């Protein structure tokens, strides 16, 4: 899952990005409204942390323009304490939620997880596909109750597939939503990560759709047109 953090306070921006990266997300960062607006217009994000009080272009106007342009990613606004007007303006602009500064990082993470689950149509922080479970809150994966250790890239890939279980996800979509701007988008590493993830899980839940991409489904629900795992 790929997130954008738009916050002009250098230290706070760094702290938020570090916490999100530790939680397994790919992070892009911006420090003013113009830069944030551009990234939100040109890149694919699963969620955005957006400060209201930004230089060059304030967060509310950034969000208004995104929504007018049809950008539907969940947006969590950062607002100042006791400024109820900022909160009203944020919701009217299309914000999905907000936290008030100063805040506990755990609350910000929990609210973001909830926003992205709702956007994907899920209610629980624990995802399951056949014997495979992924606990977003704990950042843990298990197969039939036995823990499975994944790298950060493998975890992001599984989490994204879990959020879109039963849907075909293209390689281009995976690259757009799982990796930051510095990732080599012309590489064939997606196939490598899928192969490694399949081997570590040891169960047939990630299926290759010819010419389309991948779909996550329980073995009994496997698409009839899927290739065998060895042909990733």
Strand content is 15-25%
CATH fold node name of the largest domain: Rossmann fold
The end-to-end distance, rounded to whole angstroms, is 21 Å
| Assembly of the depicted chains | single chain
Can you identify the CATH class of the largest domain? Answer: Alpha Beta
**What is the general shape?**
elongated
CATH architecture assignment name of the largest domain: 3-Layer(aba) Sandwich
Q: What class would the helix/strand composition place it in?
A: alpha/beta
**Rg over CA atoms:** 18 Å
Please identify which CATH superfamily of the largest domain we are dealing with: Response regulator
Set down the secondary structure blueprint.
Elements lengths: L1 E5 L3 H13 L3 E5 L2 H10 L4 E5 L7 H10 L6 E5 L4 H10 L3 E4 L4 H15 L6 E4 L2 E4 L4 E4 L2 E3 L3 H12 L7 H8 L10 H13 L4 E4 L3 E4 L9 E2 L5
Parallel strand pairs: 1-2, 1-3, 3-4, 4-5
Antiparallel strand pairs: 6-7, 7-8, 8-9, 10-11, 10-12
Helix pairs in contact: 2-3, 3-4, 6-8
Describe this structure in words.
Helix 2 runs parallel beside helix 3 (59-68), helix 3 (59-68) packs parallel to helix 4 (84-93) and helix 6 (152-163) crosses helix 8 (189-201). This protein has 232 residues and is α/β, with parallel strands linked by helices. It folds into 2 domains: 2-119, Response regulator (Rossmann fold, 3-Layer(aba) Sandwich); 126-231, Winged helix-like DNA-binding domain superfamily/Winged helix DNA-binding domain (Arc Repressor Mutant, subunit A), CATH 1.10.10. It has 8 helices and 12 strands. The protein has helices at residues 10-22, 33-42, 59-68, 84-93, 105-119, 152-163, 171-178, 189-201; strands spanning 2-6, 26-30, 47-51, 75-79, 97-100, 126-129, 132-135, 140-143, 146-148, 206-209, 213-216, 226-227.
């Amino acid at each position: 899952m790929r997130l954008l953090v738009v916050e002009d306070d250098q230290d706070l921006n760094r702290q938020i990005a570090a916490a999100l990266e530790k939680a397994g997300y790919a992070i892009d960062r911006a420090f003013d409204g113009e830069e944030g607006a551009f990234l939100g217009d040109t890149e694919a994000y699963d969620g955005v942390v957006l400060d209201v009080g930004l230089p060059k272009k304030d967060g509310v106007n950034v969000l208004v323009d995104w929504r007018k342009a049809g950008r539907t990613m969940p947006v969590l606004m950062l607002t100042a304490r006791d400024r109820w007007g900022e909160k009203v303006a944020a919701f009217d602009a299309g914000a999905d939620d907000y936290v008030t500064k100063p805040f506990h990082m755990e609350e910000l993470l929990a609210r973001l997880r909830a926003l992205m689950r709702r956007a994907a149509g899920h209610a629980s922080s624990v995802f399951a596909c056949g014997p495979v479970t992924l606990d977003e809150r704990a950042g843990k994966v298990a197969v039939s109750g036995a823990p499975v250790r994944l790298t950060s890239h493998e975890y992001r890939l599984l989490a994204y597939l879990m959020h879109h279980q039963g849907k075909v996800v293209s390689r281009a979509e995976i690259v757009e939503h799982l990796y930051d701007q510095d990732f080599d988008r012309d590489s064939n590493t997606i196939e490598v990560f899928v192969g490694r993830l399949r081997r570590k899980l040891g169960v047939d839940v990630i299926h290759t759709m010819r010419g389309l991409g991948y779909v996550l489904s329980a073995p009994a629900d496997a698409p009839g047109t899927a290739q065998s795992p060895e042909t990733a």
